[in-house]
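Dear U.,

For the methods section draft, I wanted the exact inputs and outputs in one place so we can describe them consistently. I've listed the two proteins in the order they'll appear in the manuscript figures. Please don't edit the token lines directly; just add comments below if something needs changing.

First protein:
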Amino acid sequence: MRILVVDDDFVSRKKMEIIMQNFGECDSAKSGEDAVGIFVMACESRSPYDVIALDISMPDVDGFEVLSKIRQIEDSRNIQAEKRVKVIMVTAKSDKATVVECFQSGCNDYIVKPANWKIVFNKLVKLKILKFSQ
């Protein structure tokens, strides 16, 4: 599994990378612009990401705009819905308006900071990215 972690905060980005490395090959981006560029390169190299953990609050391009650009790129490449990258928005906000905006923007799920292994694991299972049988 290929994973991209996007967060402008170094500590938050590293924490999420450490968690995500348990589940697959993990790259990171420190800005929204970097994330879009890395995503495009992955698509062009035919090695797309399976999951993106995307922070909402970033100074250059926020997570909602990054998600919009990613979905536009997928549309322009005619990527089928089931093959699109799963985007998990990462936020410090848990209010209803933020959660609704995340899903309306096209994300697949969200995580409220601080994230931990169990929360991420459960989200990946819920999204059927990881298979887990009890």
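Second protein (the one for the lower panel):
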Amino acid sequence: MKLLLPIIFAVMTGLFWGTYGPAVGLAREALPGDKSPFKPYLMIGLAYLVWGVIGGAVAMRATGATFTYNGGQATWGFIAGSLGAFGALSLTIAMFSGGMAMPQVVMPIVFGTAVSVSAIVATLTINNVEVNPMLYVGIVGMAICIVIVAYFTPHPKKHGPPPTPAAQVTTPSTSHPA
């Protein structure tokens, strides 16, 4: 079970983050006429505060972790949090600039790119490692998959004028009065 735990939580993360984009779009669409992308972003920040800070403190206490940090932990933790916040802001702006149809296009780009960037950063930051050329094949494959998923994901129908009713056709009655 211990070996499955990282996989289970990785899948959960994918599920949460996969529903994140559509939820941001729904938050923006919830108030007709007021489609500011920054109202949902403010609530995203509040959620990070509640779940990140308070939840993190509770989890640290429950696991017996200390509340002392060295410079590297604090610095890199803050950088990681900032990267996540800037990612959320970038996603919010991406959704804002494209309307409600954009989660189906933006989300595959976001997560396909994230996988590739993570792999590239690992190759640049891990010392004395030989990169298998298949990594680059995978990155190209991911780019192809991004396009396929974004293109074939169902999109909401565009709003247009309502269909015009068909003209009523009257036919002469075939029954005769008695």
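Candidate sentences for the figure legend, describing the second protein: The chain has five helices and no strands. The chain has a mean pLDDT of 83.

Thanks,
Y.
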